Amino acid sequence: MHNHTNHLIHETSPYLLQHAHNPVDWFPWSEEALEKARKENKPILVSIGYAACHWCHVMERESFEDEDTARIMNENFVNIKIDREERPDLDHIYMDAVQAMTGSGGWPLNVFLTPEGKPFYGGTYFPPKRAFNRPSWQEILLGIDRTFKESRDEVNKQAENLTEHILQSNSFGVQDAAGTSVISKEQLDMAFENIMNTADREWGGFGKAPKFPQTFTIQFLLRSFRMAKLHQPESSAGSPVQDRNEGKDQALLSINKMIEGGIYDQVGGGFARYSTDTEWLAPHFEKMLYDNALLVSVLSEAYQLTKEQRYKEVIVETMSFVRREMLHPAGGFYSALDADSEGEEGKFYVWEANEVRSIIGKDADIFCRFFDITEQGNWEGKNILRVKTPVEKFAEQNGIAVEELKRIVEEGNKKLLERRQKRIRPLLDDKIILGWNALMNTACSKAFMATGIIEYRDLAVDNMQFMLEKFGSGESNELNHTWKNDRAKYPGFLDDYAFLIQALIHLQEITGDTKWLKKAAQLTRFVVDQFGEEQDVFFYYTKKDQRDVIVRKKEVYDGAVPSGNSVMAYNLYHLSICFDKKEWRERSFKMVSALGQVIGRYPGSFGVWASLLLELVLGTLEVAIVGKNYSKLVHDLFKEYLPNRVLMMSETEKEEFPLLAGKKSTDIPLIYLCKDFVCQQPVTSIERFISLIDRH
User: Fold this and answer.
1) Is the dihedral of CA 179, 182, 185, 188 positive or negative?
2) What pLDDT sits at residue 101?
3) What is the pTM of this model?
């Protein structure tokens, strides 16, 4: 029996439901709440967080569950709780406002709005009593109430200024006045050099702690290495694009250190959000669907390039984790696993040495040494499993056969996983988000290409059917953003559509079914119409008919997930080749050009853009495989690392697709290659195809 129940009780978001019994009279973002603020002439408090956010839980426990604090909030404000993962559009707007006011942002995000919904003050976490050079939450509430009542003109002026700032932040990206060509090898060199200037040559990654995976940067370095060799097999001194060995080595070092560290769950597979230290030991323990999707994708590329067996093992382990713990029975993927369990961050994942020894038994000494498990612990008196010495070297140092060490590790991890399953689990955020599912769908396709494991292709097909059925309505291109309890909510955002189109393109490549490509083109036309800006360059984050936001934002930065704009630029470019749509190709070029030199100067924030720039400069391999029984050729092709290619396949010619038009069916399937507006004679084997690329 609960003492309090507020307006969040009918929501489906686990994060909102966590607050449904707070004494604070929370509303979801709704016309009801906004109308109440206007009618009562009260400021609005918007508090934004998400289910796997540790400090969101702390602030709830300290302040939102406190009766006295709730009384102040209820008497003086209309209080709105938002799950940032359900409403990223609102989060983007109000995060911009807080960053403009304070110079920093994060979650929990607490923003005060006028009754008209315009921000005038905000911050992140506030303690219940003055601490950490921060005022208490009650002091903030009482101060805002007083200011709103006594200095309303100043509040309104501040709100107008902030709203104008948010609008102006859409006006980015003007090509430099000197007219320097943005799509150039010089820009690629600048991006490469700026990335390498931030590289941690000892522990991998880029920059200092906290360390994020930065998969887009790793991907750019891998692709730079491969595409430079494809473009210029005989590297020449002084060439603007040289063999990028140094970048490849840094990318692989970053991957190796992550999969050896505590950011990777050595027992159960899957990656945590980020590392709090330089060595990737102590993660922030939440596991997000999108991080694991992006890491599987880049691991798949690394495996194609290197054939390093450990990369395949980590792909398999991570995909097993996703299927075991994040897959809805109907075929969708859940959003996240919390960092906390039993009120303690990481408790579900860490171990005491004596516990491990009792579980592992006779092989415990080797197992513990391999995973850095000690009596004193390697993190806050407990142990996070990590690998300090790679398998081969450890086996040699300890006089044990590599295969025997692998057996001990595999069997030991299986025992620990079985024991861990009996612990109290972290909260599962079981809402299903369209865009994140699309990223995981792409990861499934890439994992299938790299490993040849059929289940990943089947999972991609099933998940795609789930997305198109559950998030849409019949033949309409209108899609929603979230789905839970058989109910889809909130109009889809640019990210949702962009990531879904990307997934459809990859799905066509692994299945050969052109219906997926046709759907991608259909959705692209919808995005151009509904999200396009007046200048026909970038896309807005929200549809043109959405009415409950004060501004329409345009997001271009590649952050924790790619920006919808960078992925749409990729989509437009690739689909322009598949459908011979000149206007889509030109728009993609225009989007990259409009960013000016920021891609080269700040590649860490424009990683996906940098990879697209790489392809626009060095060219795209247009590959078609036509003929009977083409599947073996296709599977052999998938094993090759060709990141700058568009692929279509068919048993017969198909005039509606330029890459398949005029190519007659043959008993022995043929591989056709075109690049830079020139086509080569078809060949019958992957070996001859690769030699053709290397000569071209």
Assistant:
1) positive
2) 86
3) 0.92
